[in-house]
Specification:
The complex is a heterodimer of chains A (309) and B (439). Chain A is α/β, with parallel strands linked by helices and 309 residues long. Chain A is built from 10 helices and 14 strands. In chain A, 34% of the residues lie in helices and 28% in strands. Chain B is 65% helix and 7% strand. Classes of the chains: A alpha/beta (309), B alpha/beta (439).
Chain lengths: 309, 439
């Protein structure tokens, strides 16, 4: 049973389709990257998942039952992009207040806050105000507040914006830890390289529609174009290749695309037959960015998906 | 669910009450008002302006006895001064009284180098009036001795006056000045609360929106709870402040009574002297009689009504302020534009109150105290007069309760959508749509 299942979700804002028939499910110890350009409908989607707004159509199932935000919000942790804290309130009180609003008892909340503050070396912050913190420190605090109540589903909206590499790494490690402990994580961003680093599953959205989802490595496999990078110790002699085309040629390096019906070994054999000395040979998988752009263009050129108007 | 709104109320209350500005404003505002009242009294007594020296050329010879020197005004009867050289001779003004000064004759002329102040001009006119009146009396064969003795008599020696309000079987002393004072005071206080606390609600909502904390919170509580929690929390802050002022007034009254009745105030300091000389009586007795007049007001009606109009008026406007705060988009100018339509009726009510307070039974006053937009302020100006009819009060209360229920309902609908909407200017048309949309 998936932890969260979205079925044909739709949300329209005065004629504009913010989310237009999106379905997917998330489960297990996975980190999902919810990807899309600004205005793709990510925030609307997340707000429906966190119960802030209700979908116009479609169902959200949480642990197999219709999602009841007021009672199940305890199991979800949501960190909005930047800020999301009272500037003039003391940090300790703020953490306590927000966890109690989610339904934790005071005792439980204090215990968890102490545990996390210690873990992130924030003990001295208790009586400070958010105003006194740097942007990165604020982001760290926000992360802690999001995970305090040990949610089953953790939703992070651009968690790394404004963080320096050290703190970025700290939070990245924590995301991996939580995932290992069984927390399902949805991580929303428009920065593809972060997704490649952290996520193992992706969901691509654009203009309110889901354009692709699945396993990150599998998607890359599916979209690969048989492009390899080959490096030489000395410049090889020129020859007319049979099994591949050269896409880009530098002095000691070439990018090649293998032709249909041939294998990488055919390429190597051909080079070796021509006396080349090879010291590097690896496959170039497409970046998420490339996949995304390719996918978006494909959909836009298909008449069935063009904007109705 | 209940405990969540309670958490919100507690947070709103304690973050504000513990704030330095709250403590300062609670203590400083009454002090500031006292300082203002005594300060103006002191300053007006001290600075009657510079001494006025007026040269009088009286060609009729009738006026000399009617112009008496005052603390700040000196009259000098001379024929050597004219309207061209009075300044050179050290006079501030020159008064010329021609021999034939009847209304068909030549004009009496007061010439000065600078604009002359009102008090001086009034004093000159009083002197002229007196002299002319005496002249008329004498012309009509009234004995000069008799006239002088009549002029010396004060009203208190001639008659006694008391104003009483007759309400069926019981009579009360009428005290329009006290009613005016209490009415103006409570009306002003409510006006102040609506503006200050309304703005505070709006700022709170804007903060939650621009900080995006609303997003975090609204996933665990309903938007209405967040809005209502804030409004109620701030109302509690207002009541606390009011209560502290109440205590402060009681302490001041008690302290005043104690010190003055023990004669400690006998050693006059400059402030008391100034007040006494201005009012022509001693401060302690003034204070004590003022206190008993003050306590004679119908506090049993005024206090409950005040608390009701204070809270209901606040609830009426606070939800509107909350709705306005929820549609602001990080642009302070937006906020200003949105506040104006809400503060406008409040300011108008205040203006209306000042207009009707001395005439609390006029049609304008009655309707102003019944219509919910202005009733919190205008009704409080009328209640101390004791002239509010029961049906007027009941209608006003019912309409105001209905009014704030309605504004809260409308505001909740706007707030619910507005608080989560970013980066987009909201048009009136859209707000209209939100109002009619079902949840």
């Amino acid at each position: 049973m998936p932890l969260l299942e979205l079925r044909n979700l739709k949300k329209y804002y005065s004629g504009h389709k913010a989310v237009d028939d999106i379905s997917f499910e998330v489960s297990g110890e996975n980190i999902y990257g919810l990807l899309g350009p600004n205005g793709a409908g990510k925030t609307t989607l997340l707000r429906m998942i966190t119960g802030i707004i209700l979908p116009d159509e479609g169902d959200i199932l949480f642990q197999g039952k219709p999602f009841d935000p007021m009672n199940q919000i305890m199991k979800i942790g949501y960190m909005p992009e930047e800020r999301g804290l009272y500037k003039k309130m003391k940090i300790g009180e703020q953490a306590l207040y927000l966890s109690m609003l989610r339904g934790m008892t005071k005792k439980e909340a204090v215990k968890q806050i102490k545990y996390w503050f210690e873990k992130f070396e924030m003990q001295s912050w208790w009586n400070k105000k958010v105003d006194d913190l740097s942007k990165g420190m604020g982001q760290k605090l926000q992360f802690v507040i999001t995970v305090l109540h040990q949610p089953r589903l953790l939703i992070l909206d651009e968690p790394f914006s404004g963080l320096d590499p050290v703190n970025s790494n700290l939070i990245k490690q924590e995301i991996f830890n939580l995932s290992k402990q069984g927390t399902t994580i949805i991580f929303s961003t428009h920065r593809m390289e972060q997704v490649e680093e952290i996520c193992n599953k992706i969901i691509l959205v654009n203009r309110g529609k889901k354009i692709l989802d699945g396993d990150l490595t599998k998607i890359k496999e599916d979209f690969k174009e048989n492009i390899f990078k080959i490096g030489f110790s000395s410049t090889p002699d020129y020859f007319e290749p049979q099994s591949f085309d050269i896409i880009e040629k530098k002095d000691l390096e070439s990018l090649i695309r293998i032709n249909k019906g041939y294998h990488p070994s055919d390429v190597l054999r051909e080079y070796l037959d021509h006396g080349a000395s090879i010291h590097l040979f690896n496959e170039i998988l497409p970046s998420l960015n490339e996949i995304f752009i390719k996918q978006v263009n494909e959909i836009q050129s298909t008449p069935a998906f063009s904007e109705p108007n | 669910m209940k405990s969540k709104i309670w958490l919100i109320i507690k947070r709103e209350y304690f973050t504000r009450v513990r704030n330095r500005t709250f403590i300062l404003s609670t203590i400083l505002l009454p002090l500031f008002i006292l300082l203002f009242v005594f300060g103006t009294a002191y300053l007006t007594s001290k600075s009657q302006g510079e001494k006025q020296k007026i040269a009088v050329n009286d060609q009729s010879g009738l006026f000399k006895s009617s112009f008496r020197d005052k603390a700040n005004i000196e009259y000098d009867f001379t024929t050597e001064v004219n309207e061209n050289n009075f300044a050179q001779k050290g006079y501030t003004a020159f008064l010329f009284i021609p021999e034939n000064h009847s209304s068909s004759g030549d004009s009496i002329k007061l010439v000065s180098a600078k604009q002359i102040n009102i008090a001086t001009q009034d004093d000159v006119k009083d002197g002229i009036d007196e002299a002319i009146r005496n002249k008329v009396f004498l012309e009509n064969h009234i004995d000069k001795k008799l006239l002088d003795s009549i002029n010396k008599v004060k009203p208190e020696q001639l008659y006694r006056f008391s104003a009483v309000v007759n309400k069926g079987n019981k009579t009360e002393h009428s005290n329009p000045l006290l009613s005016y004072g209490i009415g103006f005071g409570s009306g002003f206080l409510i006006y102040f609360v609506l503006i200050i606390y309304g703005a505070s609600v709006m700022r709170g909502v804007m903060e939650e929106k621009t900080n995006r904390i609303a997003e975090v919170i609204i996933s665990s509580v309903r938007p209405f709870q967040l809005m209502a929690g804030k409004i109620i929390g701030i109302a509690a802050v207002g009541l606390t402040q009011l209560f502290m002022w109440f205590i402060l007034v009681i302490i001041l009254l008690a302290a005043g009574t104690f010190f003055l009745s023990h004669g400690l105030a006998a050693n006059t300091d400059s402030l008391q002297a100034a007040l006494a000389s201005q009012q022509g009586s001693s401060l302690p007795s003034e204070f004590l009689s003022a206190k008993s007049t003050f306590l004679s007001a119908n506090w049993l009606l005024i206090i409950p009504c005040f608390i009701f109009y204070f809270l209901a008026g606040y609830l009426f406007y606070a939800s509107l302020f909350a709705a306005a705060g929820s549609i602001v988009n990080e642009d302070p100018q937006d906020a200003q534009a949105l506040t104006i339509p809400i503060t406008m009726p409040i300011i108008l009510s205040f203006v209306l109150m000042t207009a009707v307070i001395s005439n609390p039974d006029s049609t304008l006053a009655v309707w102003g105290s019944i219509i919910p937009f202005s009733s919190p302020i205008v009704m409080m100006a009328r209640i101390p007069s004791g002239n509010v009819l029961p049906w007027e009060l009941i209608l006003s209360i019912v309409l105001l309760v209905g009014g704030f229920t309605f504004t809260t309902y409308i505001a909740a609908k706007i707030y619910r959508t507005g608080i989560l909407l970013y980066g987009k200017k909201v048009t009136l048309k859209e707000i209209g749509k939100w109002l009619f949309r079902k949840s």
